Amino acid sequence: MKKVQLNPLGWMSQLSQAEVARLQDASDSELFSMFRNCSLAVLNSGVDEDNFETLFAPYENFDIKLIRRERGVKIELINPPEVAFVDDKLVKGVHEHLFAVLRDLLYMGDKYDLLHEHAPSDGAQITDMVFDMLRHAKALEGNDNVNTIVCWGGHSINQTEYKYTKEVGYQLGLRDMDICTGCGPGAMKGPMKGAAIGHAKQRNKTGRYIGISEPSIIAAEPPNAIVNELIIMPDIEKRLEAFVRLAHGIVIFPGGVGTAEELLYLLGILMNERNHQQPIPVILTGPAGSEEYFEAVDKFIADTLGKEAQKKYQIIVNDPEEVARALCSGLEKVKRYRGAMGDAFSFNWSLKIERDFQQPFIPTHKSMSSLQLDHNQEGSDLASNLRKAFSGIVAGNVKAEGIKQIKKHGPFEITGDKALMSNIDVLLESFVKQHRMKLPGSAYEPCYVVKQK
């Protein structure tokens, strides 16, 4: 049996004895099982696997414990994955990530009672919680420079697309922009890797590579090795809010349903009349050959949300330098707007996010089939419901609970009016055809059925 004890790092090395006692109490809670799984995922950093069962199967004997010491709390690993070690020494980045998991799941989870009825549910309370979690993670420190670019895109992309994400990241890094992604492989790893080279060329030693995940997705997308600031939000809705309030600009690379969910969330917010003046630069980009993908996405947005939604982003194909220049121009507008509004540069308080975009959507067969998917609603409301439909498909594809439901009860049913269902079906089929649902080499079995009323 292999045992490894780890000293606390970062903010977790400055806990009071009362806080350590609370953490030990939390080790007997439901949160601890989540903490164990997320820690195991972090220990598998760099492993290209999006099936939680395959990832966890070899480690049934793995365990993790908290050991109380006068100076704080230690983590003890029992039978950890060898991939996390070099010559029997734990990789430093993995060490840091483990204490980030401890901070976000056990400390913050216990503080906000995240798994129970007392968890924040009011819109303002949720935003305050997102702010507090980012503050505890020190993500807001250094974010006053108005240079944080959130990059979204698929974990299942081809080599041409991956190289392009690196080139875009490189151009951003040369211009001293920091990168924030979902922290996994593919289009999340590429921009960070490219930016790291750009930062090195500019002798920028403070480059930030922020990875924001959530418990049900981190097992399918373990943090890549470039991430130097890991943050785990309680659920996908808090994760998305953290992205948009932290971001100064957003780049969207080719991806599958998860990327479509992120785009729909963003458009739903920007279509709110109270956000019409928000100058957030949003760029959809990919290499030559990705035109078909962007045409499909752009047509879907036009047919479902309309021309107003299309005005919220621009598409740039095969031109990383133009992407970087367009973002530089957009960031100047962000500075002026935040200054005029008296808003913080580090956290976008003035962005209005309706409660429906903040409340967790739990994908079940009932909740998926009950979604209102028709044009008899405001564009922002339709974007919210479409986002939920795509979120359910993500759950069915890669999240443990979603996969279990599909195995037990069969595919989720998505039902709506004929035109809208046709639009959804065409887009999803294009994702399947382009192998964007699962990692290359694995067969995809749809977890959904599209039905017309």
TrEMBL record:
Q: Which residues form the Pyrimidine/purine nucleotide 5'-monophosphate nucleosidase C-terminal domain?
A: 332-450
Pyrimidine/purine nucleotide 5'-monophosphate nucleosidase N-terminal domain location is 4-111
The major lineage groups are: Bacteria, Pseudomonadati, Pseudomonadota, Gammaproteobacteria, Alteromonadales
Source organism (scientific name): Alteromonas hispanica
Q: Could you tell me which Gene3D superfamilies the record lists for this protein?
A: 3.40.50.450, MoCo carrier protein-like
Kindly list the GO CC terms recorded for this protein.
cytosol
**Enzyme superclass (EC):** hydrolase
Catalyzed reactions: AMP + H2O = D-ribose 5-phosphate + adenine
Q: What Gene Ontology terms describe what this protein does at the molecular function level? A: AMP nucleosidase activity
Can you say what this protein is called? AMP nucleosidase
* SUPFAM superfamilies per UniProt: MCP/YpsA-like
Q: Name one Pfam family in it.
A: PpnN_C
